[in-house]
Amino acid sequence: MTHPLYMKPNPLYEHYLRQTERVAALFGQKLNPRWPHLAAEISGNAGQGRALDQLIAQNSDSVDDSVRRRIKVMEEKPVVCIVTGQQMGLFVSPLYIVYKTISAIKLADELNARQPGYCFVPVFWLEGEDHDYDEVKSVRVLDKSGDLRTFSLNDDQPWQGFPMNRRHFREDIDELLFKLRECLTPTEYSRELFAFLKTLYHPGADWLRAFHGHMAGLFSGKGLLFFNAGDKRVKERSREFFAAIVTQNDEMLQSFALGAERIKNSSCKVQVNVQPGRAYLFLTEGGGRRLALERQNGYFVHREAGLKYSRDELLRLLERQPEWFSSTVLTRPLWQSYLLPTLSYVAGPAEIAYWAQLKPAFELFGLTMPHVQPRHSVTLLEPRVAKLLKRFEINPARIPVDVRAFVLHHLKEKEMPELKAWFEELHRMKDEKERTLLKLVEEIDPTLKGPARKSFYRAMEIMDQMHSRLVRRLREKETLLTDQLTHVHRAIIPAGAQERVLGAIYFQNKYGTRWLEQLFKELPDRFDRHRYVEI
Question: Where is the Bacillithiol biosynthesis BshC N-terminal Rossmann-like domain (predicted)?
Fold first, then answer.
């Protein structure tokens, strides 16, 4: 079992992990490819890595010595990249952003050790052009009592639809940071952490820069490079790519549809349904809202905004304003390989499901489809939780989603029905035992029948008192056990899988860098199964 019961990855992902033939054929590379051959093919493809120099330029001012060393090697050897990325969730949330990044770093380190002829570079693609504010405006943590709390920034209506790299924090970020610190358990790390956060997250601060700085702090010393594809110089290098989307739009949609058909033929579900009227191209006209273009009678349009371009008009706009153009979920992987010599992309289960659709599109654009590496999947076990799991001999992978079912199951094991049965049996036999005792007393000395009866009832009264004390103590233990089991469940499945709910800041505040060090130490170079890591 690669994942616990409370996590249900899509079937295509599971087939990919097992390398089922019909699903493996949907991808450009096997799960365990011939790395030297693939590195040679990608580094030798002139159509890929068009912005490699911009990757170096964007990281050249890093104060991290490991990044500087990485760049120096990049200037000496052929470069291929291990890329990952994610929406820029507030305070680096949820946790799987961290696990994707660790996966990319560990794969790069493994390949650098095994293949010294190349420089394998872990790259985090900053998804600054995403415009889904609701997806990134909140962070969830466990408070001092272990209860799940959500902290959200206010809705930003005037900036609705704007890409995240155009957004800045407003005054409510100060209040949110204050409330967040009040909620979290004070530790030896809190003061330094929140001082660091205030240098990044403050009114007027750029969202992309804040996220970048936070991630750079988390992964200092790991040689991780960051790439901002929304940079104007990168967009200038992207003219040819976006021009191909415009001029080959029909063929591109056909390639997406072919990929979807192949997935259906493999008896799996398509993750992203192809919409024939979509152009799969975003336009932020005037650098404002991000608008999804559609196709209508040979034109590229956005009806709500009143936009209408012929193919030639859109190409002329691209020539003048390349920074206005951006990719969609299905074209982003293609763009990544166009800009960077992408050897492998580290993906989550849902991403792997839609990457399965893209092989025909990579072929259409003349790009080598990279290897797709499943990210690590982790549940962090805090000391108290790990201790309780061991005490009660609970397998965390078999914990159900329903907390009530989980608690009742373990309470039932502790009920001690034999105690209840013993006292019930005692009361059933009470009259018979009394008669037997009084008969024996009468044979010995009839004058003692009264004291004997009185002593018998006193003894029964004492046993009833003991029964009440035992039941009360059992209920107290049940209450304690209920609290302990609820704490375990809440820590492991806080409204869903921990890695999809909690933010990194919760563990930063409580454990400093120890939790990250433990992850790097315990996780293998590549994903094999869901891991439980004790902090």
Answer: 8-375
